[in-house]
């Protein structure tokens, strides 16, 4: 439904500020009369720094026409704060908009500000899951989920790990889900922080727990690789877990070999792991022939494998 | 067809290929022997590689597929089905170059970008907060194509002056709040416009104050007051500081001063390091997923903070980064995908392709497959009616046109960083980007002729070299704001 302000008595006190272009600008858009007028009133209320209920309605109107309009979102956020609107009210309003504009940056930043102010992430995980049902790799949505984990300290949270697991279960190639799993399990413990200030006995216990976790994650990655050995996501996760735990790549020598006993190999990532195992063991000749095989079976990356060859000689 | 596994499809294709190449061999032998004289052949000039050669190439590039079907593999298969006809044949009926690849459709793309700068119907209202972006993409694309943009000088100045905010920075449109994305696009566009009028139209004093308000206590930058903090913010700020020769110190009114920060660079190096993920690429902010566009922004920051060899090796795990970048090149497509297990998309021709000149200046040359990227851009990304696109089946737009062309340029040219930082321009803070030089054309394995070659692009600013140099030189010579 079209909405105008010039004949609305509630807006009679406002003199709109129309778009004032110098000459005929580049990329001039033939706005509809409705959008032009709404923007004129928005500029006017912004100029007088008005934050009121009617401004809230105006921002809703403009967002409805152009949800990519960051100015309106930012001004709406300030208005909400001025009016002390309960965050839950705003979230209720926001949800359907988010669901119909999946790729929009502004919505997520807006949501983050509101949930931050609410100081509770209740219901957020479910809402995010609903969004990811429609677009399982949406960058903004996953980033928002990572913000939530950090903001509300959900490190190693059972629900978060289960969620990543569910998403990986649906599509073992969903790299965003793997990234989230890594973030939740290992992202919160920066070097030097682990175990700090803890009692001695507890420290040992922690170490044991950590070892178990690493073992579990290695096995988890392996079973995922068995489903799709050519998918990089689980391989990179596996390598990262090894690195995190300061384990050598040869830890997975037997596993990698399961995929390398035929030619062409069933997984080039296994072949790459094999290359690194040889390099680790200083078996230069074997490493070199593995690199040749990689260049043969993965010709698009031939320059890269050649560079690895050079690095090998240097090392 | 649906019952066939990817593996079977690949195998069938290989068999077809073997049959094809046998047939070609027979045909050409036959022709050779029945021909009266070899002179006929010489008159035709060098043999143009045919569709069969492209099919041979594509099949050689075909990866090993897993049997398991998931949403990702289905999307990949559908994408391949759309792209393969363009890599193997020439559905757009473009004239072919001497490599049997569509020639660069220069005139058509110029026309498309000129239209991009023109009037838009109401349906473009969603672009209203991004008009400076549209200006930048069109101008940058035109300059990569070698098209003279000097006629636009006054219009660029007028258009962007209208969206400059009185409190500093640029907004998406008249009366919009300032934001780093349009600020970045506006400054680069004004640098391309070049002239003291364009440079002086920028209020550098208010801009410096505005940029200062973006600095955060953890070292990063937000995109706007109350906006999201991500690595684009850092890159946009550093580009502005560097091109316009602004002070390294935070302005006195910068809120981050309350947290003990004194310069724009405080804790930024550390923050960028934290954006490198376990995969090796760089993410929007610490903990997020490695992504091509954010990786370019991260490398761009480091290339502004000092000589790439110094900064990148110091703050990034370079072998991990190079590995991640390499894996983003799709096979057999040749184009780049922005993330692991995602689809190729023409804009990553720049976001990933454009990382290579920066990385090569820090590590070593010849790290990537330029010819495969050129193939994707020329064969699959050019639209019949002009403009370049994400992939076949998608509509071209100014964004994908600009970044496909910038990627093509990265593939075609070599660049050199002068480690000694000699030269008259680029003294003082953020001066490193002014020590790059073109280093001739890439002469290795390639799929383009001379007439398909586009202009050099500044590896950090993605505008012409002269435009970047002249802008910095102007402000180095100027006293105060
Ligand atoms: Zn794209």
Describe this structure in words.
The complex is a heterodimer of chains A (315) and B (481). Chain A has 315 residues and is mainly alpha-helical. Chain A has 15 helices and no strands. Chain A is elongated, with a radius of gyration of 27 Å. The termini of chain A are far apart. Chain B has 481 residues and is mainly α. Chain B has a domain of 198 residues: Glycosyltransferase. In chain B, 55% of the residues are buried. The interface between A and B is large, with 86 and 78 residues. The structure holds zinc ion.
- C-alpha-based Rg of chain B, rounded: 24 Å
Distance between the termini of chain B: 67 Å
Tertiary shape of chain B = globular
Low-confidence stretches of chain A: 191-196
Largest sheet of chain A: none
Main interface: chain pair and counts = A-B, 86 and 78 residues
CATH topology heading of the domain at 76-119 and 328-481 in chain B: Glycosyltransferase
Count of helical stretches of chain B: 20
Average pLDDT rating of chain B: 91
What proportion strand of chain A? under 5%
- Overall pLDDT score of chain A: 94
Provide the low-confidence segments of chain B as ranges. 1-46
Number of strands of chain A: 0
Shape of chain A: elongated
Share in helix of chain B: 40-55%
- The proportion of strand residues of chain B reads under 5%
Give the end-to-end Cα distance of chain A, rounded to a whole number of Å: 69 Å
Function (chain B): Catalyzes the transfer of a farnesyl moiety from farnesyl diphosphate to a cysteine at the fourth position from the C-terminus of several proteins. The beta subunit is responsible for peptide-binding.
Enzyme class (chain B): transferase
Keywords (chain B): Metal-binding, Prenyltransferase, Repeat, Transferase, Zinc
Organism (chain B): Westerdykella ornata
Outline of this structure?
The complex is a heterodimer of chains A (315) and B (481). Chain A has 315 residues and is mainly alpha-helical. Chain A has helices spanning 33-47, 53-65, 70-83, 87-100, 105-118, 124-134, 139-151, 158-170, 175-186, 200-227, 232-244, 253-257, 268-280, 284-297, 302-314.
């Amino acid at each position: 439904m079209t909405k105008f302000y010039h004949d609305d008595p509630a807006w009679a006190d406002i003199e709109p500020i129309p778009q004032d272009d110098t000459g005929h600008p580049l990329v001039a858009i033939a706005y509809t009369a409705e959008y032009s007028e709404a923007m004129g009133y928005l500029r006017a209320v912004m100029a007088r720094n008005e934050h009121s209920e009617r401004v809230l309605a105006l921002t809703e109107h403009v967002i409805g026409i152009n949800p990519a309009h960051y100015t309106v979102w930012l001004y709406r956020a300030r208005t909400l704060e001025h009016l002390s609107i309960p965050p839950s009210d705003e979230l209720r309003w926001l949800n359907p908009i988010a669901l119909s504009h999946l790729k929009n940056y502004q919505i997520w930043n807006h949501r983050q500000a509101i949930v931050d102010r609410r100081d509770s992430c209740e219901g957020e995980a479910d809402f995010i899951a609903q969004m990811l049902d429609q677009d399982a790799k949406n960058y903004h949505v996953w980033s928002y989920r990572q913000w939530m984990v950090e903001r509300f300290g959900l490190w190693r949270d059972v629900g978060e790990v289960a969620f990543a697991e569910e998403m990986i279960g649906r599509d073992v190639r969903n790299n965003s889900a793997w990234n989230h799993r890594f973030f939740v399990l290992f992202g919160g413990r920066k070097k030097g922080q682990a175990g700090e200030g803890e009692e001695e006995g507890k420290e040992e216990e922690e170490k044991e727990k950590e070892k178990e976790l690493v073992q579990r994650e290695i096995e988890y990655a392996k079973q995922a690789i068995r489903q799709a050995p050519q998918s990089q996501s689980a391989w990179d996760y596996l390598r990262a877990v090894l690195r995190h735990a300061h384990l050598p790549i040869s830890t997975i020598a037997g596993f990698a070999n399961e995929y390398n006993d035929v030619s062409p190999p069933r997984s080039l990532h296994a072949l790459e792991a094999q290359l690194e195992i040889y390099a680790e063991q200083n078996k230069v000749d074997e490493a070199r022939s593995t690199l040749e095989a990689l260049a043969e079976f993965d010709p698009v990356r031939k320059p890269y494998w050649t560079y690895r060859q050079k690095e090998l000689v240097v090392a | 067809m649906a019952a066939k596994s990817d593996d079977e499809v690949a195998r069938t294709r290989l068999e077809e290929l073997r049959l094809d190449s046998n047939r070609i061999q027979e045909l050409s032998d036959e022709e050779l022997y029945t021909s009266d004289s070899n002179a006929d052949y010489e008159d035709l000039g060098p043999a143009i590689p045919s569709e069969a050669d492209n099919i041979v190439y594509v099949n050689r590039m075909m990866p090993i597929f897993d049997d398991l079907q998931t949403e990702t593999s289905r999307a990949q298969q559908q994408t391949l089905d759309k792209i393969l006809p363009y890599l193997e044949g020439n559905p757009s009926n473009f004239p072919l170059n001497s490599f049997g690849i569509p020639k660069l459709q220069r005139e058509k793309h110029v026309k498309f970008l000129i239209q991009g700068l023109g009037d838009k119907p109401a349906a473009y209202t969603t672009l209203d907060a991004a008009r400076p972006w549209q200006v930048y993409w069109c101008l940058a694309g035109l300059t990569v194509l070698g098209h003279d943009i000097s006629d636009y000088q006054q219009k660029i100045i007028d258009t962007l002056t209208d969206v400059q905010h009185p409190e500093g920075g640029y907004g998406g449109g008249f009366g919009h709040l300032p934001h780093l994305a349009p600020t970045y696009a506006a400054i680069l566009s004004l640098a391309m416009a070049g002239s003291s009028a364009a440079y002086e139209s920028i209020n550098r004093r208010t801009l410096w104050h505005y940029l200062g308000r973006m600095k955060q206590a953890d070292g990063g930058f937000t995109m706007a007051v109350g906006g999201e903090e991500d690595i684009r913010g850092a890159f946009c700020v550093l580009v502005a500081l560097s091109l316009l020769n602004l002070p390294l110190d935070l302005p006195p009114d910068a809120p981050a001063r309350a947290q003990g920060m004194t310069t724009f660079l405080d804790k930024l190096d550390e923050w960028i390091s934290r954006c490198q993920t376990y995969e090796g690429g760089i993410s929007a902010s610490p903990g997020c997923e490695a992504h091509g566009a954010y990786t370019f922004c991260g490398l761009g920051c480091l290339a502004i903070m000092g000589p790439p060899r110094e900064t990148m090796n110091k703050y990034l795990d370079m072998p991990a980064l190079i590995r991640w970048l390499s894996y983003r090149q799709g096979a057999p497509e040749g184009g780049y995908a922005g993330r692991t297990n995602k689809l190729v998309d023409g804009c990553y021709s720049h976001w990933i392709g454009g990382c290579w000149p920066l990385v090569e200046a820090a590590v070593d040359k010849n790290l990537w497959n330029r010819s495969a990227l050129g193939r994707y851009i020329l064969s699959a990304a050019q639209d019949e009616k002009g403009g370049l696109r994400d992939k076949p089946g998608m509509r071209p737009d100014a964004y994908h046109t600009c970044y496909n062309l910038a990627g093509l340029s990265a593939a075609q040219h070599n660049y050199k960083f002068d480690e000694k930082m000699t030269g008259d321009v680029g003294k003082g803070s953020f001066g490193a980007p002014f020590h790059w030089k073109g280093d001739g054309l890439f002469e290795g394995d390639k799929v383009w002729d001379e007439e398909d070659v586009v202009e050099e692009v500044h590896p950090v600013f993605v505008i012409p070299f002269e435009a970047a140099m002249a802008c910095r030189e102007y402000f180095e010579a100027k006293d105060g704001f």
